[in-house]
TrEMBL record:
GO MF annotation terms: dGTPase activity
HD/PDEase domain location: 50-175
Alphabetized SUPFAM superfamilies for the sequence: HD-domain/PDEase-like
InterPro entries linked to this entry: dGTPase-like, HD/PDEase_dom, HD_assoc_2, HD_domain
Name of the protein: HD domain-containing protein
UniProt cross-references to Gene3D superfamilies, sorted A to Z: Hypothetical protein af1432 (1.10.3210.10)
Organism whose genome encodes this protein: Dyadobacter chenhuakuii
Pfam family, one: HD_assoc_2
Superkingdom of the organism of origin: Bacteria
GO biological process, alphabetically ordered: dGTP catabolic process
Length: 410
């Protein structure tokens, strides 16, 4: 069987699956599940074109990894065939642990279990099935491989993950400010002192990359309407879990019901051998089928939230520069009480929170620029554009969202 395949990608053109191992990974049910999980969750409530999947993104990141490794080879860095394949495998699998509506799911059904941890559990399970063929890829993913720049290409502020999702999310949302010119950026990559660096002539490309990331966060990932929809999904899942724990009967697919009824920790994935298979059974369809089923549930809070979300009757949301005052929250609670929301139901229809945008985390993970003389400088020090330094500061915004004009069902 010919396992060297070519895939037509709308962002990059043709993407090659260049080895038997990569084909076997793409063909595996763990990876095929990513076809059924949208990359941007609920973002299509704002940008109708944002329907691309984590399957698309993972293939795109694998493609960029291959392009970057070829550039490094052309610049004289020895990268063996097993290393080349392992780096592509590591980035291909980097999102395996994402559930449907990942961050919402983590906050409600898998509290304190990060998707990166589940990704590693799944990679190790795959490695056992494949008799150790992923040993090197797992080392690169974890950062234990001696050549550290491989891990930086998988996970850092200049990794192939970010390069693809900025380009891809920009393409599918139509937010052109997020386009980063990945081809030029990749051609500027180099390795110095075992670190992934950028040549000085790529300085403007990095500046564009950081600005694009900041803009995409405010315009897409932290868009206030998306935050409102996510808050509604979080609240209805919280309500469903509360009802389930109290003994109420709730429609759900078997795999989704398992996570809805139980609180699992990361250690449970080792204790319960079939738990990983249940997790791999979860995708966007489980959540939407449940939301559709719950809209006729006898509980008025659950049925109202589900109906509102399905019909895009979203909570009103307002951003603030400081935490909302108690007077403001009391006024909104008063409005909801007048609309028939009982005090014990209030938390489901009035949500406050905060969000941050940190375009460049200099202290945690610096981007190094290789100057013409060979010196390595932080991008904020190498650039003469003052806004780069400004991007190192955390911008924090507070928000309140509430059900305006709500009418409880039932």
């Amino acid at each position: 069987m010919n396992k060297r395949k070519i895939i037509n990608d709308p962002v990059y053109g043709f993407i090659s699956i260049s080895s038997d191992l990569l084909y076997d990974l793409v063909d595996h049910p763990y990876f095929q599940r990513l076809r059924r999980i949208k990359q941007l969750g609920l973002a299509d409530v704002v940008y109708p074109g944002a329907l691309h999947t984590r399957f698309h993104h993972a293939l795109g990141a694998m493609h960029l990894m291959g392009q970057a490794l070829k550039v490094l080879q052309q610049k004289g860095h020895a990268i063996s065939e097993p290393e080349f394949e392992a780096a592509q495998a590591a980035i291909l699998l980097h999102d395996l642990g994402h559930g449907p509506f990942s961050h919402v799911l983590e906050s409600v059904l898998l509290q304190h279990v990060a998707h990166e941890s589940i990704t590693l559990v799944m990679m190790k399970a795959l490695n056992r099935q494949m008799e150790g063929r992923l040993d090197l890829a797992i080392q690169m993913f974890e950062g234990t491989y001696p050549r550290k720049f491989f891990h930086q290409m998988v996970s850092s502020q200049l990794d192939m993950d970010r390069m693809d999702y900025l380009n891809r999310d920009s393409f599918y949302t139509g937010v052109i400010e997020g386009s980063i010119g990945a081809d030029r950026l990749i051609k500027m990559l180099d390795v110095s002192e075992d670190q992934l660096v950028v040549e000085e002539k790529g300085l403007l490309s990095i500046e564009n990359f950081l600005h694009a990331r900041r803009l995409m966060y405010w315009q897409v990932y932290l868009h206030k309407t998306l935050l409102s929809a996510q808050a509604m999904l979080t609240q209805l899942l919280q309500r469903a879990r509360e009802l389930s724990e109290s003994g109420a009967t709730l429609f759900a697919t078997p795999d989704f019901a398992r996570f809805l009824h139980n609180n699992y920790s990361l250690e449970d994935f080792d204790i319960h051998q079939d738990l990983l298979d249940s997790f791999n059974g979860l995708d966007d369809n489980d959540v939407w089928a449940s939301v559709k089923g719950w809209r006729t549930h006898s509980d008025p809070v659950l049925s109202t939230l589900c109906t509102m979300l399905l019909n895009r009757q979203l909570f009103k949301i307002t951003f603030y520069d400081a935490p909302p005052s108690e007077a403001l929250l009391a006024d909104l609670r008063g409005q909801l009480l007048e609309a028939g929301i009982a005090e014990e139901q209030m938390d489901y229809f009035l949500v406050s929170g905060e969000t941050t945008n940190w375009a460049y985390a200099k202290e945690l993970d610096p981007i190094r620029v290789k100057m013409k003389g060979g010196a390595l400088l932080d991008i904020a020090d190498a650039s003469d554009i003052p806004t780069i330094k400004a991007l190192t500061k955390i911008v924090r915004k507070y928000y309140v969202c509430w059900a305006k004009n709500v009418s409880l069902r039932g």
